[in-house]
Design goal:
By secondary structure, the protein is of the alpha+beta class. The protein contains 18 helices and eight strands. Strand 1 and strand 2 form a beta hairpin. The termini are far apart.
């Protein structure tokens, strides 16, 4: 097998990803010394080494051949071989636990893979991006934030994710392959780092839409918990399986509006689906149908449904032996179910969220600094508004005309609005209304409403966490009691055995006496 270079084209921009080598290698999830090695098909690129169960180019149409995993590469790595055992080890001195060992079939393959890996590591990105991710994990303005602050910063301004979603709706919805085509990893990390450091806190119209799309997916991927909790995923799955379109949509709406669905998670899901719906409305230009958009975003939104895919690890393959194909089929079915659920939510967005869409827009409108400037005058030339200007009486007949007449892009909020304030907006959003409040009381109540609602959201989130930990503790306690009883029985058995040995020993001494 030669180590010739091959390349396959990215969907956009003429850029290509170089494949340094592809072929079979043996991998062990137990490390060196474990006797059982699994043969897998590896593909080596500049940034990673991914592996499949079989050659993806030779698999049949009916064969499920998902990627089983990948190993990220950086230019600090080095290659060490052991010719006697045909072992190939890649060491990363600055990475804790990032080393890995593979086994070649022949000595020729061993040296070819060594050469290819050395070429790939020489061109691999630096580990600066990885170190920066580790550094920002502890305290970050973008990555790993709680869902409560996913769309809005503590001061009420739009978050990085919210700005990215607005950009995609305004400038990225017509880009071909948006959300499907991948940007360069270093460009994405660099853009996030620029925002973290305050060098570039807004998305300009000239930015690469694919980079912004990957930034949005990166933030969703790094959320500390799933946007849709496990119980809600189960409810959506059961609702999706209902026969009849109207009954299915009604059941899915009920699952989303259920009280067990945390309000911050619900708002985040609705906001992301709103962006996906906007993108899918331009399918003739961007070639991203609701199904295509759902295929890209479903794994990020419905993590618990995709958890079965994590069972396709090598450890479980050893447990199930030759039945590992069943795990891959189960993972594929889980992915298909998740995609189908999100596809339905995107296609029926206006029917499922018919009652909450206006509230979501108002809540998003609160986050803009200009929306809080009640003394500013409206500027028609800026016409970059997320939502129509707020009015004092939300029941006015003018509201519907303003909503229908709003065709403005989604990047800024108008400099001024009428007499509505943050307090009125949040009161309307949470089902409250004040009768003709004074400007002083509205300003003070607005701040109190923000604090109260954040505390309520935090309280609900903590209650869910406490309940989850309580269930986990109950399971652990039951296991502990079972283990305790087993040990007690074992102790009694050992004591009885020891007593019998003492009796035998005493009897032997008596027999041996002269």
């Amino acid at each position: 097998m030669s180590a010739s270079l091959a390349a396959f084209e990215r969907p956009r921009g003429g850029a290509s990803i170089t494949v340094f080598k592809s072929g079979p290698l043996f991998i062990s999830s137990k490390g060196i010394g474990w006797k059982l090695w699994k043969k897998r098909w590896f593909i080596l690129t500049r940034t990673c080494l991914v592996f499949f169960k079989n050659d993806p180019q030779r698999g049949g149409e009916d064969e499920v051949n998902l990627s089983l995993g990948g190993i990220e590469l950086n230019n600090s790595g080095s290659v060490v071989i052991r010719e006697d055992k045909k072992l190939l080890t890649v060491l990363f001195p600055e990475s804790d636990g990032g080393d890995f060992t593979l086994k070649a079939e022949t000595s020729e393959d061993l040296h070819e893979w060594k050469t290819a890996l050395e070429h790939a590591l020489a061109q691999a990105p630096s580990d600066h991006a990885i170190q920066w991710r580790d550094k920002c994990t502890a305290k970050s303005l973008v990555v790993g934030r709680p869902i409560l602050l996913a769309l809005e910063d503590i001061d009420g301004s739009p978050s990085f994710l919210e700005k990215g979603l607005r950009f995609l709706e305004e400038f990225g919805s017509k880009a071909e392959g948006i959300l499907r085509q991948c940007a360069d990893v270093e460009e994405v990390d660099c853009r996030v780092e620029e925002y973290e450091e305050g060098r570039k806190t807004e998305f300009g119209s000239d930015e690469d839409a694919h980079v912004v799309g990957d930034c949005v997916k990166y933030v969703l991927r790094e959320l500390p918990s799933s946007p849709v909790p496990a119980s809600c995923c189960t409810a959506l799955l059961e609702a999706y399986k209902i026969q009849g379109k109207e009954a299915r949509i009604s059941a899915m709406r009920s699952a989303i509006l259920d009280k067990t669905f945390p309000e911050p998670n619900k708002r985040l899901l609705q906001r992301v689906l709103k962006m996906m719906h906007t993108v899918s409305c331009h399918a003739q230009e961007n070639r991203m149908t609701p199904s295509a958009v759902a295929a890209c975003m479903a794994p990020l939104l419905l993590r618990p449904l995709l958890a079965v895919g994590e069972e396709c690890e090598l450890d479980l393959e050893d447990e199930f032996g030759d039945n590992s194909a069943q795990l891959l089929v189960a993972a594929a079915n889980a992915a298909n179910n998740a995609q189908a659920i999100i596809t339905t939510l995107v296609e029926e967005y206006e029917n499922i969220f018919v009652f909450d869409d206006e509230n979501l827009q108002r809540c998003s409108n609160v986050g803009s600094p200009r929306a809080r400037d009640n003394n500013a005058q409206p500027d028609d030339s800026s016409s970059l508004a997320l939502d129509p200007p707020q009015i004092t009486n939300p029941d006015s007949d003018q509201l519907e005309e303003q909503v229908k007449g709003n065709e403005n892009p989604i990047n800024e909020v108008p400099k001024g609005e009428s007499n509505g304030s943050m307090g009125e907006i949040l009161s309307t959003f949470w089902g409250r209304s004040n009768q003709a409040p004074s400007m002083e009381s509205v300003d003070s109540c607005g701040e109190e409403e923000v604090d109260i609602q954040r505390l309520e959201m935090t309280k609900n989130d903590l209650q869910h966490r406490i309940a989850k930990e309580a269930r986990g503790n109950a399971i652990l306690q039951a296991r502990l009691e079972t283990r305790k009883q087993a040990l007690h029985q074992r102790r009694l058995a050992l004591e009885q055995h020891f007593s019998r040995l003492q009796e035998v020993s005493s009897f032997s001494k008596i027999l041996t006496q002269p």
